[in-house]
Amino acid sequence: MEKLIQTALIVVGAYLLALWVAAIWWTYRDIRNRSRDIFLQMAATVLVAVFSFPGLLIYQVLRPPRTLADSYATALEEEALLQDIEIRTACPECKHRTEEEYIFCPNCSTRLKRQCSNCRKPLSLRWSTCPYCGEGVDSVSPIRDRESARR
Fold first, then answer.
1. How far is residue 55's CA from residue 47's CA, in Å, rounded to a whole number?
2. What confidence score (pLDDT) does residue 139 get?
3. Quick check: pTM over 0.70?
4. What is the DSSP string of 101-151?
5. Sequence ranges of the domains in the chain
6. Which residues pair with 124 in a beta bridge?
7. What DSSP character marks residue 128?
8. 116 phi/psi in degrees, rounded to 5
9. At what angle do helices 2-34 and 38-62 cross, to 10 degrees?
């Protein structure tokens, strides 16, 4: 009976040791995916190594919420949105920054928008119908636009 208890204690001890080592290894890999700070990586790993499972719980509460890959993807998405906004507010000819309501580029006189002949609201050059009054829009020649802008 005593030998059975001793064997059971060895098995349980080995299992707990394996769980402890796995928790340390998981913490090390997880914090490396969440931070580039070497000090933070060492502190998190030591926290779990010293305090074992309570340390793992503390790490779970305090760890950074997003991984570096998530942060990078979010930064790329934000940059793409900012570039899209920047492209929309730049002249397609000279790339000079323009305001949303400009009809002509103040730098090169390129037509950026046109006015509806019915309601006089600014319209995108791609639109074939005014979204404000429903009036059909005739196509405008870019050469005629530059000439009229210079007058």
1. 5
2. 55
3. no
4. T-SB-TTT--B-EEE-TTT--EEETT-SB-TTT--B-----HHHHHHHHH-
5. 2-68, 86-151
6. 113
7. S
8. -70, 135
9. 110
